[in-house]
Amino acid sequence: MSTTDEQTEQDVESIETAASTDDAPNAVTFDRAGIRAGFVTCLPVALGVAGYGIAFGVLADQAGLSVAEVALMSATVLAGASQIIAVELWADPIPAATVVLAVFAVNLRYSLMGAALRPWFKHLSGIRVYGSLFFMADENWALTMRDLTGGSRRGAFLLGSGLAIWVFWVASSVAGVAVGGVIDDPATFGLDFVLVATFVALAVELWDGASTAVPWAVALVTALVTTEVLAGQWHVIAGGVAAAVAEVVRRD
């Protein structure tokens, strides 16, 4: 074999090695550094979530839930909108079917959010993926998408940021129950607007120029129309699906 042929073969092997490395599971990291980065980055957002958690705790106290029940719900469900809907429907006996259906409709959006993470999470083991997804909320999902699309490839970022949300959410929910007898209406202190303000801040971070306006506009219009047509929280999933379809059509 000539020197030229040997060099060509080496070049081909180098290219194949690089390609296989890009697709290898270790191309996406999952370590303590990623968890720590996610936790620290999410702390300011978690503080905002805490305000919403206090509002939930107040509502839960008014519905008759104990501190232990609220703590257990927040620790295992970790979904603010769903938990508020559940306590608003709380009665004796509990309308289990109604609560489950309402919560299912609200949480359908997580299927879209999880799908968006697949390009990175497909490289991780099942226990790491599903363990991280348990702690996924709207806020830390947005932060994680920003981090991953920025090229960090820190697969543990979602877990770390989710842990920050979880700690503040559980603690603030319990605090809300404790002060429930003092605060009759969370809106009096602006606690009902905390989550809206948090999402506005996240939206600014996720803005990616004029191209972002098309799916966002489609989502907004679809959500507004759906709100007028269907009761409940169906506008959330409808807006998300419509935006995804619009983006696929636009790119094609």
Secondary structure: elements and pairs:
Layout (H helix, E strand, L loop, with lengths): L2 H21 L8 H31 L4 H11 L2 H9 L7 H12 L1 H13 L4 H9 L3 H12 L7 H22 L15 H13 L6 H17 L4 H18 L1
Helix pairs in contact: 2-4, 2-8, 2-9, 2-10, 3-9, 4-5, 6-8, 7-9, 8-9, 8-10, 11-12
Protein name: AzlC family protein
Family: Belongs to the AzlC family.
InterPro entries: Brnchd-chn_aa_trnsp_permease
Which features would summarize this protein structure in a list?
252 residues, mainly alpha, 12 helices, globular, AzlC family protein, transmembrane helix, membrane
Number of strand elements: 0
Task: Provide mean pLDDT, rounded.
Answer: 79
Structural class: mainly alpha
Share of β-strand residues:
under 5%
Head-to-tail CA distance between termini: 47 Å
- DSSP helix count? 12
SSE arrangement, N to C: HHHHHHHHHHHH
What gyration radius follows from the Cα positions, in whole Å? 22 Å
**Poorly predicted runs:** 2-25
Total discrete domains = 2
Task: Give the CA-based shape.
Answer: globular
Q: How can the largest sheet be summarized?
A: none
- The percent of residues in helical segments reads over 70%
